């Protein structure tokens, strides 16, 4: 597993497209939000900014990169060769996902730390870490499912768009408008409850039990994503 992870880490930093998608785009977007907050303090809700920044990094750095990686490794038959070894399926996927997950964790940590320094620290750091964790697991599940209908790395630029745009839109919608209206719809949409959880963790003022209740929709989406991935994910290219 570690050998697979080491190989994947090397490949990530050799692929310019993946490098731009994974590192430059999320950090550039994050820098823009921080610049706006610095120029107009108080204009944006800090919890909402934290939510959008977190989702921007996780979706762009983790989700799209994971889909591209799986599609590429399937296309060049690397996945097929790995399955012919003694390594089990879970270890193979863990090895493939470990580098991109580790890089994403570092990116999220850096972005949110900078935000806490230039603006205000989160009210509940532990709850914030929980929100980030469940969001990343959810997006990895979506990545597995999306990779099942993605034929090539180039095709991933198309197949990732619905979830990428949808989740980012929901996170911004919930983050900046709250859930006082259309509460059930906003919380049930992918990323909605996780976005609200980040806002609560950053701004505080919400009972812990109410915030933990928001984990349920995200956990449900994880189950749905994994179940869908188990049906559509392929280890070999279609003939």
In short:
The chain is mostly helical. The protein contains twelve helices and no strands. Helices cover 79% and strands 0% of the residues.
Strand and helix layout:
Layout: H1 2-12, H2 16-39, H3 46-75, H4 78-83, H5 89-118, H6 125-147, H7 153-159, H8 161-177, H9 183-188, H10 192-203, H11 208-213, H12 215-232
Shape assignment: globular
Structural class comes to mainly alpha
Low-confidence stretches: none
Q: Which percent range fits the helix content? A: over 70%
- Major sheet attributes: none
Q: Overall pLDDT, averaged?
A: 85
Order of helices and strands: HHHHHHHHHHHH
- What is the terminal-to-terminal distance? 28 Å
How much β-strand is present in the residues? under 5%
Quaternary: single chain
**Count of DSSP strands:** 0
Radius of gyration: 18 Å
Q: With helices defined by DSSP (H or I, 4 residues minimum), what is the helix count?
A: 12
């Amino acid at each position: 597993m570690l050998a697979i992870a080491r190989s994947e880490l090397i490949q990530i930093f050799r692929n310019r497209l993946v490098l731009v998608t994974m590192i430059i785009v999320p950090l550039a977007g994050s820098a823009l939000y921080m610049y706006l907050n610095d120029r107009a303090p108080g204009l944006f809700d800090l919890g909402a900014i934290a939510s959008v920044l977190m989702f921007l990094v996780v979706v762009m750095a983790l989700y799209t990169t994971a889909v591209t990686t799986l599609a590429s490794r399937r296309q060049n038959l690397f996945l097929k060769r790995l399955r012919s070894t003694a390594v089990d399926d879970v270890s193979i996927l863990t090895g493939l996902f470990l580098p991109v997950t580790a890089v994403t964790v570092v990116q999220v940590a850096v972005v949110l730390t900078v935000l806490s320094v230039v603006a205000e620290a989160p009210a509940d750091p532990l709850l914030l870490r929980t929100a980030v964790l469940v969001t990343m697991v959810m997006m990895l599940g979506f990545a597995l499912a999306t990779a099942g209908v993605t034929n090539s790395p180039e095709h991933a630029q198309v197949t990732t768009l619905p979830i990428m745009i949808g989740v980012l839109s929901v996170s911004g919608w919930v983050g900046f408008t709250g859930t006082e209206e259309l509460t059930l719809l906003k919380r049930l949409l992918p990323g909605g409850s996780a976005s609200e959880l980040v806002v609560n963790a950053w701004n505080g003022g919400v009972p812990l039990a109410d915030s933990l209740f928001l984990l349920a929709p995200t956990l449900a989406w994880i189950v749905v994503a994994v179940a869908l991935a188990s049906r559509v994910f392929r280890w070999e290219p279609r003939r």
